[in-house]
Amino acid sequence: MAANSDFLLQFQEFDSSESHLGGIGDATTISIEDTAAGSHNPQKQRRSAPVTSFEEDNDPLANDDKTELLSGQKKSAPFWTFEYYQRFFDVETHQVRRRILGSLLPWPGKNFVHLYIHNNPDLYGPFWICATLVFVIAICGNISDFLVFLGEPQYKYVPEFRKVTIAATAIYSYAWLVPLALWGLLVWRNSKVMNVVSYSFLEIVCVYGYSLAVYIPAVVLWIIPYEAVRWLSIVVALCLSGSVLVLTFWPAVRDDQPRVAIAIMTAVVALHVLLAFGCKAYFFSTLEVKHTAVDAVAGHGTKSPPTTKIQ
Amino acid sequence: LSSYLTLRYYVCLAKLALHHFADLSDVSISGDIPVQGEINVPVGTPSQDKEYSTLDEPVKDTILRDLKAVGKKFVHVMYPKKSSALLRDWDLWGPLLLCVTLALMLQGGSVDRKDDGGPQFAEVFVIIWFGSVIITLNSKLLGGTISFFQSLCVLGYCIMPLTVAMVVCRLVLLGGSWGFSFIVRLIVVTASFSWSTFASTAFLADSQPPNRKALVVYPVFLFYFVIGWMILTFSPSA
C-alpha cells in the first residue's frame, strides 16, 4: 500500500507539471497515460488496477476542465458556416468608438493591440473604415478637381466613377494584402527567433484597418486647393497612423537581429507613406496642373479639355 | 371534422384523468362517461378553397393584387411608421422597379465623354444590389434577427425618396446647371437622402441588439449617401 501511495503521489506530481506545460486537459491525460504505460511497464500488472481507478477519478476533472475551457473560448464552428464569421463581428458601438479614438491618438508605450483589441479582433472596423475611405477619396477628389478648375471655360464637370474602382482596389489591397505579407514574415521570423510578442493575422488586419481611420479627416481637408494645407494634413496623418503601426510592431520585432528589425519597420512605414502620397497624387489635382493645362490650351489653341494627371 | 376529433381526444384525456384521480382518491367512478351534444365549429375550408383557386382567376386580378401590395409598401415608405407589414410580406418587385428607373434616369449624361463620365447602367445596378447585399450581411453578422430578403426589400423600397429626387433634379436641370438650380438640387437630394436613411432605420433598427444599432445604421447612411452623390453630380450632356 505504501508503494501504491508513493506511486499515486508520483502520478499526481507528473499530472500537475504536465498540465502546466500542456494547457488542454485532453492532451494532458493522453500524455500521462502514455508515460505511465511506458515508465511503469514492468509493474503494469500490479499497478493496472490503481492506475485505472486514478484515471477514472481524473476523468471527470478532465471533463470539467474541458467544458470550462470550451465555455471560456469561442466556439469554433467550421469555416463554411455563418456562425464562424459571426465571432469576428462580436463588437459593440462603444468598443468600435474606443478603437477608432485609440488609433487617432497613439501614445508611446500603449500598444494598440493589447490595449484595445483584447483578443477580440473584429472585421467590422477594417472593412467599413476602408469602404468609407474609398468613397471619401473618390468624392473629395472629384470636389477638389471641381474647385481647382472652377471658372475655366473649357472645363466640363464630370463625376469620375472609374476612380471609385481604382481607389477601392488600392485601399483594400493595402489593408488586406500587406497584413498578410507582414503576418507571414512575422511567423517566419518567429520560427527562427523566439519573440515575446506575436500577433495573429486578424489582429494585424485590425491594426492596419483602424490606422487608416485617421486618413478620413485628412482626405476631407485635401479638398482645400492650397498646397500648404494639404501638406500639413498629410504629414500629420502620416505621423499619427505611422506611429500606431510602429508602436504596435516594434515589440514584435525588437528581439530579432537589429538589421532585420529595422528593415521590417522601414518597409511598414515606407508602404504607408507610399499609399498616402499615391492617393494624394492620383486623385487630387493641384493648381500647378491647372496652370500647365491652361497654358497648353492657350499655347496650342486646341480645344482639348484639361486632363488631371499626376503632377 | 378536425375540431370534432379534437373534442373527442380531450374527452378521452378527461376520462383518463378522472380514472387516475379516482385511483388516487379512492372514489369509484363507473367506466365510460358518455358525452352528448352538438358541435358547430366554423371550419375555414371555404377560404382555403379560395386561396387555392388563384390559378383560375384572371391575370388582371393577379397583377392588380401584386401592384396593390407594392403600392401599399410605397405608402409605408413615404410615411415611415413602425409597422411590420413591410417586413412580413416582402417582395423584390418594388426595389427592382426603383433600381431600373434610377439607373435609366442616370443615363443620358455627358454622352460626349466616353470615359470618366457618369455611371453606366450596369454600374448603378451593381452598386445598389451589391451594396444592399453587403449591408444585409453586415446586419446579420452583427446579430440581427431580420431575414436576408426582408432586409433587401426594406433597403430597396427606401430608395424611393432618392428616385423622386432624381426626377425632380432632371426637371430642375432643364432650367440650367449651376447657381440656383444647384442649390435647389442640393437641398432636394439632402432631404431625400436623410428621409431614406430615416425610413430604413425605422424598419431595420428594431431587429438589432440595442448596443449595436449605430454599427448597423452607419453602412445604411453610407449607402444612401453614395447614391445621393451619384444623383447630385449628374450632369446632362451639353
Describe the protein's architecture and organization.
The complex is a heterodimer of chains A (311) and B (238). Chain A has 311 residues and is mainly α. Chain A has helices at residues 2-22, 25-39, 44-72, 82-86, 93-104, 112-117, 124-148, 162-192, 201-211, 215-221, 227-253, 258-283, 287-300. Chain A has 13 helices and no strands. Chain A is globular and about 65 Å long. Residues 14-59, 68-72 and 302-311 of chain A have low confidence and may be disordered. With 238 residues, chain B is mostly helical. The longest helix of chain B is centred in the last third of the chain and has 25 residues, at 180-204. The mean pLDDT of chain B is 80. The chains are: A mainly alpha (311), B mainly alpha (238). Chain A binds chain B through residues 82, 85-86, 88-89, 91-94, 96, 124, 128, 131-132, 135, 139, 142, 156-162, and chain B through 110, 113, 115-119, 123, 138, 140-143, 211-215, 218-219, 222, 225-226, 229-230, 233-235, 238.
Short overview:
The complex is a heterodimer of chains A (311) and B (238). Chain A contains 13 helices and no strands. By secondary structure, chain A is mainly α.
Strand share of the residues of chain B? under 5%
- Give me the oligomer status: heterodimer
| Number of E-type strands of chain A | 0
The interface involving the most residues is between: A-B, 24 and 29 residues
User: What characterizes the major β-sheet of chain B?
Assistant: none
Counted beta strands of chain B = 0
Strand content of chain A: under 5%
List low-confidence stretches of chain B: none
The count of helical stretches of chain A stands at: 13
Q: Summarize the helix and strand pattern of chain A as letters.
A: HHHHHHHHHHHHH
Shape of chain A: globular
Count of DSSP H/I helices of chain B: 10
* Overall SS class of chain B: mainly alpha
Shape of chain B: elongated
What distance lies between the first and last C-alpha atoms of chain A, to the nearest angstrom?
90 Å
